[in-house]
Design a protein that fits this description.
Radius of gyration: 18 Å
Number of helices: 10
Distance between the termini: 30 Å
Structural class: alpha+beta
Shape: globular
Strand order of the largest sheet: 2-1-3-4
């Protein structure tokens, strides 16, 4: 049993994608990031960056006490190594998957996230910031499109945790002001993953948790965090 602490965001979806593909038994524990659930002491005890997703593996491979893991990339790597799925053991092939996993963690996710923030959530529309992050998202789409030229998946012929990490960040391409028709290799890859039964199940798992648009109070909780506010919660 995997206890998944989750909210239906791109980082949350990464983990349900893996769990559904691998056929692992899991239980979702809602972490409503607009309501401030990520600051609860019981959650911070194993997710010290007050961010979801995080997991507790109740049946770790070493047979010992439950293992906690936070950070979506670390969770994907942990689960892949636990199950022996979606991460090659060959040193060169594994290296490639890990390169693109970290590319998503360090580039696509943060840049698309800033795109979302300044285009959709910021109370003041700052043209420079919007242009900066829309353009950088566009550049990263181009990098991924080029990588997928002649390849079924990011690391080659096999679906991997690199694909699971990147896909959820492409789902909101329209909000990111990106046209997939300009990236034919990326579009083919995206539609391929979108049609997978496990992808459909992964997104269905989060249905009903989020209700409507984020309120102004929710935004204050989510975007107004400082060291003082997190320590005093």
């Amino acid at each position: 049993m995997i206890d998944l602490y989750y909210w239906p965001t791109p980082n949350g979806h990464k983990i349900t994608l893996f769990l559904e593909e691998a056929g692992l038994e899991y239980k979702i524990h809602s972490v409503n990031i607009g309501a401030g659930d990520q600051f609860k002491p019981e959650f911070l005890a194993f997710s010290p960056n007050n961010r979801m997703p995080a997991i507790i593996d109740q049946n770790p491979a070493d047979g010992g006490d439950p293992i906690t893991v936070f950070e979506s990339g670390a969770i994907l790597q942990y689960l892949a190594e636990k199950t022996g799925k979606f991460l090659p053991t060959d040193v060169r092939a594994k290296k490639t998957v890990m390169e693109w996993l970290f590319w998503q963690m360090g580039g696509l996710g943060p840049m698309a996230g800033q795109n979302h923030h300044f285009s959709g959530y910021a109370p003041e529309k700052i043209p420079y910031a919007i242009t900066r992050y829309v353009n950088e998202t566009n550049r990263l789409y181009g990098v991924l499109n080029k990588r997928l030229d002649g390849r079924t998946f990011i690391a080659g012929d096999d679906y991997s945790i690199a694909d699971m990490a990147c896909y959820p960040w492409i789902v909101s391409h329209e909000k990111q002001q990106q046209d997939l028709n300009n990236f034919p290799n990326l579009k083919r890859w995206f539609e391929n993953i979108q049609a997978r039964p496990a992808t459909i199940a992964a997104y269905k798992a989060g249905e009903g948790l989020r209700s409507g648009e984020m309120s102004e109070e929710d935004k204050k909780v989510l975007f107004g965090q400082t060291a003082r506010s997190t320590q005093n919660t």
